[in-house]
Amino acid sequence: MNDSLITDIHLHTLRVPLTEPFVISLGPIETVQNVVVRISTADGRTGWGECSPYMTINGESMDTCVVVGGYFAQLLRGRDSADIAGCIGAMDGVIYANSSIKSAFDMALYDLAAQRAEQPLYAYLGGHRNKVLATDMTVSIGSPEKMAADAARFWKQGFAAIKVKLGKELEADTARIRAIREAIGPDAPLRVDANQGWRDASYALAVLQALAPFNIEHCEEPIPRWQFLDLPALSAQSPIPIMADESCGDAHDAERLIRIKACPMFNIKLGKTGGFYKGLKVAQMGEAAGMELQVGGFMESRLGMTAAAHLALANDAIHHCDFDTPLMFTEDPILGGIGYGEGGVIDVPEVPGLGATVDPAWLEASVTNATARL
């Protein structure tokens, strides 16, 4: 019997309240609603994956991920887990898009493959520990006073960079950044993310010009993603470098943006690309185009963020990390995984595979919407 044949697949829901609502231009989040995938193989190994669906970005919810994950569980029964390309192709053949839940299955398959190779996942992906990974810390949308206080607290805690959620009116967003700069000083690394919140390129340019005096490193997704054809002109005129996020999902999106010279930076997320198999392609394309890359996420726990950290070590063009969401959780259900050090420095596990699992006691105590056992 082939030791790498898939014998069991389990889907678990993962709900964790946040310490306080996390607010972006697309709306607030109060509770994490993720899905965890466990894939077991004939040799007794278990691979873990997690997705954090975001209805307003990838069009998926926890409930849809459980349903579609059930299709994938039936599909992959008895398949060779080592044939990652075949498993990915099979899932794509069943249903279009659904990149979030696909990423959880992809993650678990790569965890198994790296375990079998007796390598940390980043090494299995061809990466090296040749750089320091340090996460920023994000300030969500609120009053200028609240945002300034949050930024000052994060800066005092030693995070190497502050990321600020914007995407409202020019005057309000400018007031927010002004207050934050007054709180953290003129030189602290500061980044902004509009989450498509400025209504068009003309308005976005006006906001970016207003923010220019505040020494902003880059701005993520300033305009609605369907207006991507306006990104080249906006990027050329903007005093702040533009980073594509929602408009850059998989390799097809990346190719389109590169061909039109849309912007100099990409934000890669496993939940957008569908996992490592396609995420690595986006990174390679960005690197070949001379772009500066970031790896981020949605609202993953340390399980999903550990996967993101392995990806960040797999490509030299990845310079920025946005791995802060687990720090917003009221509970930490993960065993192993990345650690957070001084200055937001990320410690990546040096064990075979992903190096992170979900605490069995936490799984037993949690409410499970669906478990698919093959």
UniProtKB/TrEMBL annotation:
As to how many cofactors bind and how, the note says: Binds 1 Mg(2+) ion per subunit.
Indicate the segments forming the Mandelate racemase/muconate lactonizing enzyme C-terminal domain, all copies. 144-241
Give its E.C. classification number: 5.1.1.-
SMART domains, A to Z: MR_MLE
- Please provide the record's keywords in A-Z order: Isomerase, Magnesium, Metal-binding
Q: What is the top-level taxon of the source organism?
A: Bacteria
One Pfam annotation, family name?
Answer: MR_MLE_N
Identify which top EC class this enzyme belongs to.
isomerase
Magnesium is among the record's keywords = yes
SUPFAM superfamilies xref list? Enolase C-terminal domain-like, Enolase N-terminal domain-like
- Cofactor(s) the protein needs: Mg(2+)
Q: Describe the family membership recorded for this protein in Swiss-Prot or TrEMBL.
A: Belongs to the mandelate racemase/muconate lactonizing enzyme family.
Q: What is this protein called?
A: Dipeptide epimerase
Lineage from the top down? Bacteria, Pseudomonadati, Bacteroidota, Chitinophagia, Chitinophagales
